[in-house]
Amino acid sequence: MAASDRAGALRGLLPAVCLAAVAGLGSPAAAGEADVEAVEVSRQADGAYRFDVTVRHADEGWSHYADRFEVLDENGAVLGTRTLFHPHVDEQPFTRSLAVTLPDGVESVVVRAHDSVHAFGGREMMVALPSR
Question: Hey, which bits of 1-132 come out as E strands?
Answer without folding.
Answer: 35-43, 49-56, 66-72, 78-83, 94-100, 108-115, 125-128
